[in-house]
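Hallway conversation turned thread

IA: we were arguing at lunch whether anyone had actually written out Phosphodiesterase end to end. Turns out nobody had. So, for the record, here is the sequence (726 residues) and right after it the structure tokens. Reply here if something looks off.
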Amino acid sequence: IWTAGLFNTRLHSSLFLQVLLVFAKEDSQSNGFCWACEKANFRCSMARTPESALECFLEKHHDLVIIDHRHSRHFDAEALCRVCQNVWVLTCVLFLRPDREEASVMPLINAGFNRRYVENANTMACYNELVQLEHGEVRAQFKLRAGNAIFTALEQSQEAIEITSEDQVIQYVNPAYESIMGYQQGELIGKEIIEVPKSEKNKPDLLETINSCIRKGKEWQGIYYAKKKNGDSIQQNVKITPVIGQGGKHKDRRKGSLDVRSTTSRGSDGSSQRRHSSMARIHSMTIEAPITKVINIINAAQESSPMPVAEALDRVLEILRTTELYSPQFGTKDEDPHTNDLVGGLMTDGLRRLSGNEYILSTKQPHHMPSHLTTPLSLNDIPPRIAETMENEDSWDFDIVNLEAATMKRPLTYLGMKIFSRFGVCEFLNCPEATLRSWLQVIEANYHSSNSYHNSSHAADVLHATAYFLCKERVKQSLDPIDEVAALIAATVHDVDHPGRTNSFLCNAGSELAILYNDTAVLESHHAALAFQITTRDDKCNIFKNIERNEYRTLRQAIIDMVLATEMTKHFEHVNKFVNSINKPLAALEENGGNNDDESVKNILTSPENRILVKRMLIKCADISNPCKPQELCIEWAGRISEEYFAQTDEEKRQGLPVVMPVFDRNTCSIPKSQISFIDYFITDMFDAWDAFADLPNLMQHLDNNFKYWKGLDERKLHSLRPPPE
């Protein structure tokens, strides 16, 4: 088989890439390429003879032509390729049978073929070849054609354009420059700028000012007096733009200045050599990881890319080496210590322990139910005052603090009973209501009421937010009943037995939990493991006892995944994946006029991978939704989390441990600044994405109001939760 790639100058998109298959007979190989075109969203045409192929090609000018040469008696593939080459610029790929390796490839290269693929009817092999062609030869040809178009635009421009290298050697002037300045190209190309006479009307330090600006990579614009060949000076409105290399630095190590003169000129670095990628290429992998495919595609694209593109792709490969692909970099501690301390405390697993003190945690057995809770309550037994506080539990503005007071710090059991009943959890799990009540009570008993923030009231608050999100139309379209049950259970248990200290603290203190979980997602792993331990140890509270084994495994995996998603080190990964896999495709459908809207939206929302992303995003937003609550609740939770961090700092100082978040010193901390940093760094982008998906205008309004509230306090130099009384 032989393949020829032909390229149009139109804007390239996979959705419009056209492929012509020239196969004399239908067989598994032609079917493989047809299937691959469909999978890649390419438009595919089939021709059986050279005549019909040429007619079809002249009509559509396909981007890629694949010619079958396994049965040469049917037609001459080389002749067909030459004809197509005469009609359109062509990049070709050569396909051969395994038993017909050519002794010399020169005749094939002369015909226009420049790539070889040994016959393989495997559909994935065909698909991979097409994708590599698209990202390599096809896109490279588009860029080359765009470069030719840009050069034509320069030639036709009525503005004078001059391009120099960094060492001030003139590389190009356009016809308008020749006409205005009186020089011919041959008199200028290859000469240094200093050899061209300058006008005396410029200020003495003007050139130094320009060169200083260019050395910094900044554009300069202003009035410049140029001297024509005949000696006359003319005034020009000049824009000088530097073209910088990889990483924001000029590629020329001599640090020579750019001196590029015109209204539209751009500097060119013609001296640097393209360097090879430092990442080794991976060939012949039977099972390719997605990142391997990405690297292979980038390497293929580099082969025929212009030098600036190749250098940019080298930088891409360098970035792909790091494991922290989703964690943005932030500035020094001097720039914003509140943001740095907060982010560092939440997104790292701590430093190495600096003292012999050890923080003992989790050696004790899980709490059993207190004796006064051994007789479970039913919905009918809830005291009227408590029932009254839960009347609007389906509203976002529900006041969990009132319920906490009414239930004497046992809101999770009561609210859980009502929400689980509303979602039919007992019916789904086929468990008695008494079992569910017992389970809620024993889970709540394992939350620490002594924690100011991470207690059962926080768990009840997250459960409430989860139930609220599950009622949103887009969320309901995405998730199955088993996903909803998993989300409610995960919200209930997501912080069970939380010690009121961060992961960093536990790792620094050498706690038994940190040792058990290898300093990785320590608390989240503990919450998930303990929840199942509590649930399955006693039939009286085993809500999973009566469900089928496979259903239990699915449910268990979903709960664990959601609890682990609340760990903040993966925050940006979860948000970015949600945006790129769900938000952007949905937005693209809307922009394209909603063709096949319902079916396309359904495919995006209900794919197994995207359902996982929705569940992760849902519990993450529920877990840290305090800045999106009514202002009084937002202030209450801000005070509670600050107190917990203050207590951790106090204990770190007592035990001689590294202080994870130094700004959370109760004597000096600015709570408004810490809230502003948290909203800026974690909340805004995440809730923008979640709002775009689930439509939550009331939450976004609360977020805006709360941010303005904290900003107002900070502008008044106040460190407290509230302004002083009048």
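OS: looked through it. Residues 123-156 form the longest helix (34 residues).
IA: good, adding that to the notes. Residues 157-266 form a domain with the Beta-Lactamase fold (CATH 3.30.450.20).
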